[in-house]
Design a protein that fits this description.
This protein is an alpha+beta fold. It has three helices and ten strands; from the N terminus they run αααββββββββββ.
């Protein structure tokens, strides 16, 4: 009974975060939620402990990763987005999850950007939930100072497999100063 209450509280916390800052950020003017900070934001507890999730779904290729360490410290379980490394020109994008389905697909997660090993920000201002509006798809590093991410846009009539449209957000990496910062610039509807 106690575990069911914990699951319900975790679900309500995620639903509250999503309602407050989730996919709706894609409908508002682009403003930066990332501030120059060297600390990865703390994860909210998932439905299983971080250690249990790491043992069940952790990526052996990230065992010694220098960027995975700060994610673990903040309570996230590191993973490779779509099971592939995203790195180029000193920029690396790595996922952090707090919950995964039985097949180890992240169900509550965010994607974190590191520049020359230093945390620059998240690609979404709130955690993302599998098969829901605002979930990240393809992420591309365009160059040393920019990247793009595509996000699914679901309507209440869409099935989990098929969002009505996709939106691409373009980001700039500001390297001035002592701490890099990921800044969203614009968005464009792709379909």
């Amino acid at each position: 009974m106690r575990s069911l209450i914990c699951i319900a509280i975790a679900f309500l916390s995620v639903a509250t975060l999503s309602a407050q800052a989730g996919a709706s950020w894609l409908d508002r003017p682009m403003t930066s939620w990332n501030q120059p900070a060297s600390v990865v934001p703390a994860a909210q507890a998932g439905t299983e402990s971080q250690g249990a999730l790491e043992r069940r779904c952790g990526s052996s290729s990230l065992a010694s990763s220098t960027t995975a360490g700060p994610l673990r410290t903040a309570g996230w379980v590191p993973f490779l987005h779509f099971d592939r490394a995203i790195a180029r020109d000193g920029v690396e994008v790595i996922g952090g999850m707090t919950t995964a389905n039985p097949g180890c697909e992240p169900t509550i997660f965010n994607l974190f950007v590191f520049v020359d090993g230093r945390f620059a920000g998240t690609i979404s201002p709130a955690v993302m939930t599998q098969s829901r509006d605002g979930i990240a798809g393809t992420v591309r590093i365009i160059g040393a100072d920019s990247l793009t991410a595509e996000f699914a846009r679901y309507t209440p009539k869409d099935t989990e497999c098929c969002p009505s449209s996709r939106v691409r957000v373009t980001y700039r990496i500001e390297r001035a100063g002592s701490q890099p910062t990921l800044v969203p610039l614009d968005r464009r509807t792709l379909r």
